[in-house]
Amino acid sequence: EVQLVESGGGLVKPGGSLRVSCAASGFTFINAWMSWVRQAPGKGLEWVGRVKSKTDGGTTDYAAPVKGRFTISRDDSKNTLYLQLSSLETEDTAVYYCVTYSNSWYWGQGTLVTVSS
Amino acid sequence: DIQMTQSPSSLSASVGDRVTITCRASQGISSLLAWYQQKPEKAPKSLIYAASSLQSGVPSRFSGSGSGTEFTLTISCLQPEDFATYYCQQYNSFPYTFGQGTKLQIK
After folding, report:
1. Closest Cα to residue A2, out of A33, A23, A20?
2. What HEC string does B11-73 produce?
3. DSSP summary character for residue A117
4. Which residues of A touch B56 (CB under 8 A)?
5. With A32 labelled, which of A87, A101, A103, B49 sits at a CA distance of 20 to 30 A?
6. Which of B45, B23, B57 is nearest to A99 (CA)?
7. How far apart (Å, rounded) are the C-alpha atoms in residues B69 and B45?
């Protein structure tokens, strides 16, 4: 069974940084392309970015609102995906979901990041 | 970026009704479309992938169809647990994009 468990969310001040993690199991993580999606309170869903598997180049792609501020990385030895959030703005307040495709789409339960002074 | 437009934005229906939600893409996306159900304070739940393939464990009253730019999600006989918000998502090209959501409410 595919499981994705996010952690590391919390309250951070504008301009600050935070790293959230996603522990994966139930599929071959090393071969998977992994993504982050966010949802601001009361709003719709927004794709943040993705990282390809190392065999597919291991490259990252980001949505325009976060490019240059957020960094996605992976540790295949730990089956873990990371999202480093920097230069945070109040508009980055959202639940952040870890997502992958393994014959269909799978989502974690999300972790809340609140940016507020 | 590919724009995804869902209609209607909200819908009132009764238990037992058949409902259809439409999703249009601003350019062709082949069959690379997914549908999700989301309830308040919960993560989205995958219903359909590849436009018409039912996610394992999802009831057969849910079905998807379409290709290219026009897609539909149909719920054949609404159950009380189906009242939620539904989203479509294209994964043909990055950034993957979502529709704005359709809120299905009890009439």
Report:
1. A23
2. EEECCCCCEEEEEEECCCCCCCEEEEEECCCCCCEEEEECCCEECCCCCCCEEEEEECCEEEE
3. -
4. 104
5. A87
6. B45
7. 23
pLDDT per position as a tens digit, B40-71:
999 999 999 999 999 999 999 999 999 999 99
Q: Which residue is closest to A94 within chain B, CA to CA?
A: B41
CA distance A22 to B30: 30
- What is the mean pLDDT of the segment spanning B76-104? 96
Find residues 53-72 of chain A whose CB sits inside 8 Å of chain B.
Answer: 61, 63-64
Residue of B96, B97, B103 to mutate when probing chain A, most A C-beta within 10 A: B96
Q: Which residues of A touch B51 (CB under 8 A)?
A: none
B103 close to B9: Cβ distance less than 8 angstroms: yes
Type of residue numbered B42:
K
Tokens 């090393």 belong to A30
